[in-house]
Structures are given as structure tokens and as C-alpha cells.
Amino acid sequence: MMSLLLKLVCFSFTWSYCVHATVYGPVISSNFPDPAILVTSQGTFAYATNSGNINIQIAQSLDNGASWSLLNGVDALPDVGPWATVNSTWAPDVIDRKDGTFVMYYAAESPSQGTHCVGAATSNNPIGPYTPQAQPIACQTAGGGAIDPAGFKDVDGQRYIVYKVDGSSLGGGGPCGNADGQYSTPIMLQKMEADGLTPSGDPVQILDRGPADGPLIEAPVLILHNGSYVLTFSSNCYNTDLYDISYAVASSIAGPYTKAAKPLLVTGNDGITAPGGATPRPDGVFMVFHATVNFNPLTRYMYTATVSWNGTVMSV
User: Fold this and answer.
1) What pTM did the predictor assign?
2) Which residue in 167, 174, 260, 258 sits closest to 218, CA to CA?
3) Which of 209, 210, 220 is nearest to 253 (CA)?
4) Residue 32 and residue 276 in contact, taking contact as beta carbons nearer than 8 Å
5) For strand 187-192 and strand 159-165, is the pairing parallel, antiparallel, or unpaired?
6) What are 214's strand-pairing partners?
7) How confident is the model at residue 146 (pLDDT cuts 50, 70, 90)?
């Protein structure tokens, strides 16, 4: 009951006055991994990795994220594009270009590359259907592929995406295929043209895994909070209970980024297991993420959290 009362207090006032940072959920009790969040005049939307025969799942909230409805049977990306494989779509993110166009970033398997690439699709409706671009944005084939894209717009209007180079897909044994740690899993920052679809220049590396991160880091999302660039990410292997939600902070967008002293969420916090795939809202005080409810078959439900800040230190 206390948790419910705190939740009502948080949703009744402006987010910045929400004193109690709390984890809620599951708010979607079906497999809905790697959720992203988008706030629009039509409501708040969440998008997730493929499940069943749906390439990109979508859910909607009409009360600022307090409650959610899965749009059953709706595929936001029914056509994955000529470069991609159906039902291999991961970790979408959607931006509002503010010109009547929404841009979806997603990762999908590319038969021609033999790995995953990051692509984009557009729609004039946040629900879709989204129309894919003919070619991917990035593949990073030699490094193991490109996955987990997320869009970001800086204060000067410059657009970027961040994504992971999937070195852990190259093999090596153990959970997530990188047990001996021989492969990097860097987070890349790619400048984009104003259309949000066209890369501008070469990507730059802004973070990589360290000893505490296990075989990988992934699921990057970039926000700007009180003048600091905050990169949330997950570390360790997604199909173990070591998976977590972490973050790093920098004073400039290209870094250097300093990882927080401890993760934001780990197994055991608020009774959840293997939290990951977090997407904060751009204001940084609310986020969606998944947690594992079953490892076999792997099933991850969506949760939400309000976030507190002490300078650049996040807590939930």
C-alpha cells in the first residue's frame, strides 16, 4: 500500500518534485525486453524487441507512464527492410523529429553481413507502421556487428545515435560468448544529419567494458541532465542474474566518460532479477527497463522507475 501511495504522489505532481524514487511493476506482464520510451501528444509509448511474429512490439500509456497497455497484435515495423531478417529485430528506439516524422532505430540480422546491423525507419504516427530505409546505418561487421541503437539530440540541435559494437558475438565460450575477455564491446557515438537517418562522419568510441563489467557492456542510452552527459548501459550477460543497469557521466558528449561507483540496479533490488535494457526519459527522472522472470525460456517483463539525482549520482 505504501508503494502505491508513493506512486500516486509521484504521478500527481511535476516529476522534479517526486521525492521518493521507486521501482514499479511489472507494468507489462509479457515478454517485452529492451524497452524504449517516447513521450508524445498522443500519450507515452514503449517499444520492445521482437516476440512471437511481431518484429517490434509497442505499448501505450495515457497517464504519463503510471499504467500501460500492450497493443496486442500491433507490429510497429511489419517490414524490416531489404537488408534485414524478419523476427531478428532487437532493442528499438524512437525519436520525434518534430516535423511530423518519427524515426525508429533498431538492430536486425543482416544476411549479407552475417551479423547484426543498426537501421532506421520512419512513420508519421508513433504507433507506425514504420517504413524502413533501404540500407542500414552501421554494421561494424569486423567487430562483431552493431546493436542496441538509441537516438539523442544535443542542446545545439545536433543529432546523434549511440550503439554497441557486438564483440561478444565473435565467440570465446561462457555466457554471452566472451568468457576470456578477448573482444571489445565498445559503445560508439555516431553524429547524424538533421534527418536523423544519414550518418555524418565516422563514429567515435566513448566507452568500453572494464573488469567489473564481465564479458560486455550494451544497451546504451544517452541523456543530458543538468549540463552533464549521462550514458546508461547494461553490463554482464543478459541471461544471467549478474546483468545490471549502470551508467557513466561526462562533461562533453565525446567523453571521457567516468563510470559510476556502483550500478543503478542489480539483482535483488526491489525483488527484481537481472534488470537491464533501461531507457530514461530525456528529463532523466523516469525510466523503463526489463527484468527477468524466467530464464528458460528467457522471459523479461517491463518495469518502470522514478529516478533521484544528487549531482550526477543516480539512484532508484
Assistant:
1) 0.93
2) 167
3) 220
4) no
5) antiparallel
6) none
7) very high
